[in-house]
Amino acid sequence: MSAALAPLRLVRLPDRRPPVISPDDLVVDTRPNPYIQDSLALDFSRHASDDEFGPSPTRRSDLPAPEPIVRQLAQAFVEVMTGMRPPQQMSRWASPEVYAALCRRSVVAARRPKSSRKPPRVRSVRIQEPADGVIEACAVVVYHDRVRAMALRIEGMERGWVVTVVQTA
After folding, report:
1. Terminal CA-to-CA distance of the chain, rounded, Å?
2. Taking the model in full, what pTM does it have?
3. Over the chain, what is the mean pLDDT?
4. Alpha-carbon span 156 to 59, nearest angstrom
5. Domain of 99?
6. What's the domain count of the chain?
7. Is 40 among the domain residues?
């Protein structure tokens, strides 16, 4: 018993190529395309402020105790101002404005002749917290048998203390 074979029929495959566009139908969009393939769609037209990408303030409860740090910072700042310590050591603890001022003061101190007197010494420190994560301190400093005052504003930034203002009198 042989099985009857069905006759073969020829089936045309559809054309998968895109249609040809005539030059008359070609329309060029002159507007800039806001999207580029394989990239993120970011909006660069709005400028980010420093508030969005700057250092973030830290609450007092997330910061270390300020009492020992304030005394050490006051001592280190006085040593930089008198030329006994390089200002680069304070870059972590100072804001950019304070660091620039320290660098200027250290250059002036380097021009003075070296003395054989005692190094500067912080006699006392007083601390006040006017706001959460902000310390205002004053220090009494003795240098060359003269008593001077130093005021510091220290703010909590990125889970650490940063000196934002220094004034000496």
Report:
1. 119
2. 0.65
3. 84
4. 7
5. 60-168
6. 1
7. no
- Beta-carbon contacts of 137 under 8 Å, excluding residues fewer than 6 positions away, are 66, 70, 74, 125, 126, 127, 128, 151, 152, 153, 154
Tokens of 124: 């006392």
In sequence order, what are the residues at sequence separation of 6 or more whose Cβ sits closer than 8 angstroms to the Cβ of residue 73? 93, 152, 154, 161, 163
- Domain annotation covers residue 52: no
pLDDT tens string 44-61: 666 655 556 667 788 888
Q: 11 phi and psi, to 5 degrees?
A: -115, 125
Place of tokens 């393939």: 37
| Share above pLDDT 70 across residues of the chain, in percent, rounded to a whole number | 80
The rounded distance, in Å, linking the Cα atoms of 149 and 147 is 7
The CATH number of residue 144's host domain is 3.10.450.50
